[in-house]
Design goal:
This protein has 18 helices and ten strands. Helix 8 runs parallel beside helix 11 and helix 16 packs antiparallel against helix 17. By secondary structure, the protein is of the alpha+beta class. It is globular. The two termini are 41 Å apart. A five-stranded antiparallel beta sheet has the order 1-5-7-6-2, with helices on both faces. A three-stranded antiparallel beta sheet has the order 8-9-10.
Length: 543
């Protein structure tokens, strides 16, 4: 169940919107808006009949009565966009006495009865501190059922006046976090699908999807985030990341610290637009929670020289000038031996992950990030339009995004496969190769380990999504891969090449067997000694 909170100052406007069935005035078609819960007076006056305009105005008047009677003002900090500073700046305060929250189910969950929604709404406002259950005077409130949205999500809307019956103001401090926690508790209580309290992905505006469908293309946000993820995973330094992003056709621009042009605090990226069109920009953090510049920098060395080189590349990108460094690692072609080295690392990672405690979320997120980046880079190299590789990258990226990363500490040391993204980005041909097949076997093994972790942790939704993408999309793709062959004349195989990737994908991510190798007690794993590519294979190939 997903909560979405907004604030306003016109209770009558909100109620007219919630009761309207005019499709020209509402974002979603409201077929039969009706009450499912509310304060005692509201429920005594109204039944579950369809609300009309007159009902909406009467309910709004009732909800707003304490505020008007006591003459109380509820204010909220306001901000405006400064086009010169290119940031949000304080703009005084605005009236915000109306608290509005929608509670929505995923389309796959179906619909709830009015009785169920009523019980959920009552429990929700109690937990949010708006009723007498808080030990204070109650707020007046109402819950309205809209039925099913155009996306198939059954949902209700809750409207609350933030002025209590005795004229005091209700606190909304921490309401976003408290709403999320309350929804997790209500999911358990009412047997709803339990969303993860650990992982969280960025949503998208409904208009984004509608525009993409109209233009018969992928959403910009999805395409940009995949390219950014591939470039970030493949890069050893921030400067290299900027160059790689530009090489993929992305426009990137930095966000500077105040009054500086050499201190970069963030970035935005956009697809290069068609002639006559304007670019659509997305901040790094709005693409994914692990793609903000602060998060990306945790995986790169922090040195004065590196910061200087990065600032130079950012400034060149901002002015659409040529790249400062033209012979970076992204220009190198890795040798065949490097593929073997990273395939060995991927093998070791898949084995080591099965020894990592399920609740070591930081370590699992780091591993998922690297594997997702590898699939994203592979998709960029092989897929003219988003296909199974892009879908696998997107699904694994969900595990890479933690809701509160600071709460989970640092990941333990494990074999790194970040360099696999570099290999795919640097591949000299768009054709599939036997070396890719050998590496794919181990990447799928790693994805399987992530699936096992979710299944063992009781996150059925995440496990099922990952299983579905591997079985239904990745398996047909692996059938088109060539068989692994020896690398170099006369050499012995560096790695076992059976089973083939297609066999792993098609076997189905089977239910966990009794005696799973994932430990039940959280004991730190001992990092395995893994082979790293030698520095003699070319500049920047060390990972």
């Amino acid at each position: 169940m997903i909560p979405n909170i907004t604030r306003g100052s016109r209770m009558s406007g909100l109620m007219l919107y919630l009761a309207s069935t005019d499709t020209d005035k509402t974002k979603n078609a409201h077929t039969d808006p009706h009450l499912v819960a509310g304060d005692a007076a509201i429920m005594a006056w109204y039944d579950d009949g369809v609300l009309d305009k007159e009902d909406a105005m009467a309910i709004a008047k009732h909800l707003d009565q304490p505020r008007k009677a006591f003459g109380v003002e509820v204010l909220q900090k306001d901000f405006r966009w400064d086009p010169v500073k290119k940031e949000r700046v304080p703009n005084g305060h605005k009236h915000a006495d109306v608290w509005h929250c929608s509670l929505s189910l995923r389309a796959e969950e179906g619909a709830l009865t009015d009785q169920q929604w009523g019980d959920i709404a009552n429990d929700f406002v109690d937990a949010m501190g708006f009723t007498e259950a808080s030990g204070k005077a109650q707020c007046r409130w109402v819950a309205i059922n809209h039925g099913t949205s155009e996306n198939g999500n059954h949902h209700i809307h809750i409207a609350v006046s933030l002025v209590r019956e005795d004229g005091t103001k209700a606190s909304t401090h921490g309401d976003y976090k408290r709403a999320q926690q309350t929804c997790r508790e209500l999911e358990t209580k009412y047997g709803l699908e339990e969303l993860s309290s650990v992982h969280a992905t960025r949503g998208y505006d409904r208009a984004e999807k509608a525009t993409a469908i109209r233009d018969e293309r992928e959403m910009h946000r999805a395409s940009i985030s995949r390219k950014v993820r591939a470039c970030a995973t493949a890069s050893v330094t921030e400067a290299e990341f900027v160059r790689r992003a530009r090489d993929t056709g992305l426009l990137v621009r930095p966000r500077y610290a105040k009054n500086t042009t050499d201190v970069i605090t963030g970035y935005a990226a956009a697809e290069r637009p068609k002639p006559g069109q304007k670019p659509v920009w997305f901040g790094g953090s709005s693409l994914a929670s692990d793609l903000g510049l602060g998060q990306l920098r945790q995986h790169w060395a922090d040195t004065p020289q590196g910061a200087t080189e990065a600032a130079a590349e950012w400034n060149a990108a901002a002015r659409n000038k040529r790249k400062v460094h033209k012979t970076g690692p992204e220009r190198s072609t890795p040798s065949a031996d490097v593929w073997v080295e990273y395939t060995r690392n991927a093998t070791a990672l898949a084995d080591e992950l099965r020894k990592i405690p399920r609740d070591d979320h930081a370590t699992w997120a780091k591993a998922a990030r690297e594997v997702s980046g590898a699939f994203a880079a592979w998709s960029y190299r092989l897929e003219p339009t988003p296909g199974p590789l892009a879908a696998t990258a997107a699904e694994l990226s969900r595990t890479a995004q933690l809701r509160a990363p600071r709460q989970h500490g640092k990941p333990v040391a494990l074999p790194s496969i970040a360099g696999t993204a570099m290999l795919f980005m640097a591949a000299s041909s768009k054709n599939k190769t036997a070396a890719q097949t050998a590496l794919m076997v181990q990447l799928i093994n790693t994805a399987f380990a992530v699936y096992e972790m979710h299944a063992q942790s009781g996150r059925a939704r995440e496990a099922q999504r990952l299983r579905s993408v591997v079985e239904n999309q990745l398996a047909p793709f692996t059938a088109t891969m060539p068989k692994p062959v020896l690398v170099g004349g006369g050499q012995k195989p560096e790695l076992p090449v059976q089973p083939r990737a297609v066999d792993i994908a098609r076997r189905g991510l089977a239910p966990i067997r009794p005696g799973s190798v994932i430990p039940t007690t959280p004991t730190p794993a001992t990092p395995a000694k893994t082979h790293q590519p030698s520095r003699g294979t070319g500049p920047g190939l060390d990972r």
